[in-house]
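User: Hey, quick favor. My workstation is busy. Could you predict this chain's structure for me?
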Amino acid sequence: YSNHVTNGDTVADAGQYYVPQQPIEAQNVSLSGWNYKSSTGYITLSFWVKSSVGQTYQASLMTTDGTIYNYPFSFTLSADTWTKVIKTIPGNSNLQIDNDTGEGVRVNICPYMGTTYTSSGVNYDTWAAWGSGTRFKDFTSTWWTTNSATFEFTGVQLEVGSQATAFEHRSYGEELA
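Assistant: No problem, here it is.
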């Protein structure tokens, strides 16, 4: 199973984007054991991804409590090849994640975002205050402008520590419990 999208006949417009997101409850992160206030406390995001267009894509982890912070990074795919992406992300003393049922963290896996929301000045692999025009570094538009291009991902896992472990397959009942 995977999140799978096939794009249509599109042009690279500055205000267009496609960015699947997964919000995570703040209490699940604040009680997870991740020392998110420390640069030596790590959380690791891993997922499998494939696209019909080989190019560099981007993803990010962002906090949504208090001042919003964003940690963008890139990954490069070869066409039609499943690739495992593993990104270890350090904490930062500026992060705020409340112990409540609101959204605290969001995972973004992004095949395309127009220049209304991006900037050439964005730095990968560092926490920065979120801004509407600095969500990601400027994108290559090849995937977006290739008619019937596909992008899919699966096995997304966010876990405390600096190592990715094998994806944990759990039944609906186990997850609900």
